[in-house]
Amino acid sequence: MTSTRDALLAAAAELLDTDGPEAVTMRAVGAGAGVSHNTPYKHFADKQVMLAEIAACELRETARILRAHRDDPAAALRAAIERSIDRPHRFRLVYGRWTVESSALAAAAADALAALVDLVDAAVAAGRIATTHPALTADLIRSTVHGAIELHLGGHLGKGQAPVTVEQIVDELLARLSPRR
Question: What is the tens place of the pLDDT at every residue in 116-171?
C-alpha cells in the first residue's frame, strides 16, 4: 500500500516531469494525489522541501544504476544519461542551486558520488581506466557527462559540425581514460 507521503511525491514528480518546477504547487500536488490541498503541508514544510526529496530520490536512483552496471562503465553512464535525458526537469532539479538544507539530499548526493567513484575504482581494477586519482577522475566524468547532457537538452550539442551524441562524448572520454595498449 502506498503511503500518503509517497503518493504526494509521485504526484509532485509527475507535475515536475510534465510541466517543470513551476507547475509543482502544494495545491496541485494535493489534487494530483487525490487528497486535500492542505495535506501536503502535513508531510512537507513547503514546495522546496518536497522538491529536495524528489531530487534525493533521483540521486538514489542514479547510485542504483551506477552500481547495477559496476562492471561496465559505458553501460552505467549510458543508463544514467538516458534517465537524465528522459527526465530533464529532474536532471536540472538535481544539479540546480538549492535554497533549503536537506540531510536526505546531501546523503543521496554523497552516495551517488561514492557509486561513481566505486565505478571508477572497478574500472581501474579491470584495466579499463588508467588513473591514480579515482575521485578526481569521477569528477571529470561527472562534469563531462553533465555538460554534455546540458548541451543536448539545450539543442547545442554538435552545432556547426557533424551531429554528436552524449553517448559518443562518453565513449570518447572513456577511450581517452583507458590505458594505452
Answer: 999 999 999 999 999 999 999 999 999 999 999 999 999 988 777 678 899 999 99
- Output the nine-digit C-alpha cell for 126: 579491470
For the record, the C-alpha cell of 88 comes out as 530533464
pLDDT tens-digit map of 9-29: 999 999 999 999 999 999 999
Full-model pTM: 0.92
Report all structural domains of the chain as residue ranges with CATH numbers, in order of start. Answer: 1-44 (1.10.10), 52-177 (1.10.357)
Return the sign of the alpha-carbon dihedral for residues 55, 60, 62, 65. Answer: negative
Which of the 8 DSSP states describes residue 161? Answer: S
Burial zone of 76 (CB within 10 Å; 0-12 exposed, 13-18 middle, 19+ buried): buried
